[in-house]
Amino acid sequence: MRPAGVLFDCDGVIVDSEGAAIAIMQDEARAHGIEMSADEIRRRFVGGTIQSTHAELRRLGMPLDGDWVDRFYERLYASLAAGTALIDGIEDLLDSLDAAGIPYAIGSNGRMTKMEITLGQHPALMARFGDRIFSGQDMGCPKPDPALWLHCAGALGLPPESCAVIDDSPSGVLGAVRAGIPVFGFAEHDDGAALADLGARVFHRMGDLRALWGL
């Protein structure tokens, strides 16, 4: 069924930014004698906030101080500013949504500063979203709080249930389910079973959505 509006996550859905964060987390863990694979980091941390990551790493035994979050952001922003590509197929999907008259918005757990760095490297794409770019962290309602997705739907002037969420993380999927919004789980790196278990319809390439929605 074709949605009336589409609500996108940002990292790992629009911009290919998660690899930089994963590499820095691996470095941090290795510095404390812990080896973590990219898949393990993706499973444990992707979709959360850096604050929640800090708490989890401390729980794992890493003696991280209170300034760790700020230092992590400094490293991450520098890495992302050096070059952040778009997810393959996202521009074609937006073209199809525009042609069908379907509006869209972004709801991310990343800070607005981060999105200005990543999306800002692609000004034509960023301009397509206009003022419909929202940070759950800045708003005080990070996923899985459903309030972020509900706010995005409201910004489009649409009932939540008429929209579709696209997210690649368990927290984003859970937030959409709690908001009563159909959710499509983008599984670029695995079979997406964890997303499916939470209620997402899994897909693996952006072009899949164009076929599913008849665009």
Note down, in words, how this protein is organized.
The chain is an alpha/beta fold and 215 residues long. The protein has two domains: 5-16 and 84-212, Rossmann fold (3-Layer(aba) Sandwich); 18-81, DNA polymerase, domain 1, CATH 1.10.150. The protein has helices spanning 18-31, 38-45, 50-59, 68-81, 90-99, 112-118, 123-129, 136-139, 147-155, 170-179, 193-197, 206-212; strands at 5-8, 104-108, 133-135, 163-167, 183-186, 201-203. It has a six-stranded parallel beta sheet with strand order 3-2-1-4-5-6, sandwiched between helices. The protein is globular, with a radius of gyration of 17 Å. The model has no long low-confidence stretch (mean pLDDT 91).
Topology of helices and strands:
Layout (H helix, E strand, L loop, with lengths): L4 E4 L9 H14 L6 H8 L4 H10 L8 H14 L8 H10 L4 E5 L3 H7 L4 H7 L3 E3 H4 L7 H9 L7 E5 L2 H10 L3 E4 L6 H5 L3 E3 L2 H7 L3
Parallel strand pairs: 1-2, 1-4, 2-3, 4-5, 5-6
